[in-house]
């Protein structure tokens, strides 16, 4: 059985880094569906290591993938002009990401509790990814890592077809969306200083 970390390593060049045009990346991940692409695009913002500049563009792409899940697309679609955009990740970053995936592998099982995939279907998952990716794309502090991390969990659940893990990811998603909704409401009423006082 190919593990999550091995799937990531399969994308690497001989030097252990990833440097692929978006078109090539999508073509390589096409057989693994949306899960692998969502996992890879959310990783740079989800991991607690510097990855400046990824959150907004990848958030936009993830939002597009979320919309496609909502409308039942089986294969990811993207505008042709995106095809030449290049994704570059260093060997150091890949090594760190593999360590994180090794941890997730402990908690995931392919095709576990398959019936839950009908409860948390692709449309519901797409709505969650759409909302979280919009939050992730905002150039505002504290709006990148947490949404990206939960999108990553949803990607893992989709990739492994693990219904139980998807259930856990959905719960995390609902909590995060509720927290950000509350924060947005509080700021709109009391301003950013009011929010800071709330947690002080």
Architecture overview:
- The chain is mostly helical.
- The protein has one domain (4-198).
- The chain contains 9 helices and 2 strands.
- Strands 1-2 form a two-stranded antiparallel sheet.
- It is globular.
- It starts with a helix and ends with a helix.
Number of strands: 2
Task: Report the uncertain regions.
Answer: none
The strand order across the widest sheet is: 1-2
What is the share of helical residues?
A: 55-70%
The separation of the N and C termini measures 48 Å
Instruction: Average the pLDDT over all residues and give the rounded result.
Output: 84
In N-to-C order, the SSE pattern is: HEHHHEHHHHH
Number of domains: 1
**For the CA atoms, what is the radius of gyration?**
17 Å
**Main beta sheet, described?**
2 strands, antiparallel
Structural class, please? mainly alpha
Annotation field: number of helices: 9
Shape by Cα distribution: globular
Query: Proportion of β residues?
Result: under 5%
Name a few traits of the molecule.
globular, mainly alpha, 200 residues, two-stranded antiparallel sheet, 2 strands
Could you write a compact summary of the structure shown?
The protein has helices at 4-9, 22-29, 33-46, 55-70, 91-107, 116-119, 122-137, 145-160, 163-198, and strands spanning 18-21, 86-89.
SSE blueprint and pairings:
Elements: H1 4-9, E1 18-21, H2 22-29, H3 33-46, H4 55-70, E2 86-89, H5 91-107, H6 116-119, H7 122-137, H8 145-160, H9 163-198
Helix pairs in contact: 3-4, 3-8, 4-7, 7-8, 7-9, 8-9
């Amino acid at each position: 059985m190919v593990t999550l970390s091995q799937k990531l390593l399969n994308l690497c060049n001989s030097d252990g880094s990833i440097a692929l045009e978006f078109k090539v990346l999508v073509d390589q991940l096409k057989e693994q569906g949306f899960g692998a692409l969502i996992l890879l695009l959310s990783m740079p913002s989800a991991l607690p290591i510097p990855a400046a500049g990824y959150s907004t563009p990848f958030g936009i792409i993830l939002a597009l993938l979320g919309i496609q899940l909502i409308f039942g697309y089986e294969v990811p679609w993207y505008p042709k002009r995106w095809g030449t955009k290049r994704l570059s990740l260093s060997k150091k970053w890949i090594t760190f990401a593999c360590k994180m995936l090794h941890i997730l592998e402990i908690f995931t099982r392919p095709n576990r509790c398959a019936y839950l995939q009908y409860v948390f279907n692709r449309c519901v998952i797409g709505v969650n990814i759409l909302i979280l990716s919009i939050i992730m794309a905002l150039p505002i502090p504290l709006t990148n890592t947490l949404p990206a991390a939960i999108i990553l969990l949803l990607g893992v659940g989709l990739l492994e077809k693990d219904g139980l893990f998807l259930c856990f990811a959905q719960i995390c998603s609902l909590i995060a969306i509720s927290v950000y909704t509350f924060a947005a409401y509080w700021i709109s009423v009391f301003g950013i200083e009011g929010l800071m006082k709330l947690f002080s």
